[in-house]
Amino acid sequence: MIYPKTSLRSISITNCRAFYKKFRKSIGFLFFFFSFSVYSATESQIELIQQAAEEYIIAEIEWPVGGQLEAKAANIDSRIFATDCPSPLSSSSSSTNPSSSNITVLVECPEDNWRVYVPVRLIRTGPQVTLTSPISRGQLISEYDVTLSMVDLQRFRRQGFTSIDAVIGAKAKKNLRAGEVIEDRDICVVCRNETVTIKAMKSGMTITTKGVALTDGSHGEQIRVKNSKSNRIIEGRVSGISEVTVVF
């Protein structure tokens, strides 16, 4: 079949336009890929950003007494823009609550005008008094029943004890299992409605009498007691097993 010259010319122009569109798309893709590769953060840059976030947490967050604080930065998308900052990276955060499980840290390079928000996971461990054997309700706790164990404080958020002396001689208010962390609500050195010895101290003199505890109390805590003789209600500090001291 013989085509008119005008038809062949139209076909040629159409093919050229299609080729040009494909070529332009290919060039655009290559340009995008090249730009992506140039501006994406390198592995070493990401590591420096994570390190800066972790070091900020370690320096700013209060450490648990006798314990440890660990900080683990989350993974960072390598597609972020970053450079080899000419000065040390700057880190900051709007929260420094040590009880938080995660804190977001802003890491930035002011000179090169870029910033990255990095979530950091906190792991706080500290000593807590735990039981080495089961304890029954009403049983007195001895030094052989307890030990100090390192506990994840982010998971254990209740009030425990960091000193074994604080629980020795205390009475269990419920059945407790071996390995369990002792909480302040689990025990009482002086228990409510229990007969106690009241030691009244004044000017070097000590007068001893009996009374009834109106509230539970641990070592050093101030509780209300009722004098069995005068029926007077006074406040004193727990000074021993079933003992309350009042200083006038």
Automatic annotation (TrEMBL):
Transmembrane segments: none annotated. It comes from the Bacteria. The keyword Transcription does not apply. It is found in: Periplasm. Its main location: periplasm. InterPro entries: Flagellar_FlgA, FlgA_N, SAF, SAF_FlgA. GO terms for biological process: bacterial-type flagellum assembly. Residues 126-188 form the SAF domain. Keywords: Bacterial flagellum biogenesis, Cell projection, Cilium, Flagellum, Periplasm, Signal. One of its GO terms (cellular component) is periplasmic space. Belongs to the FlgA family. Involved in the assembly process of the P-ring formation. It may associate with FlgF on the rod constituting a structure essential for the P-ring assembly or may act as a modulator protein for the P-ring assembly. This is Flagella basal body P-ring formation protein FlgA. It comes from Vibrio ouci. The lineage of its organism: Bacteria, Pseudomonadati, Pseudomonadota, Gammaproteobacteria, Vibrionales. The gene is flgA.
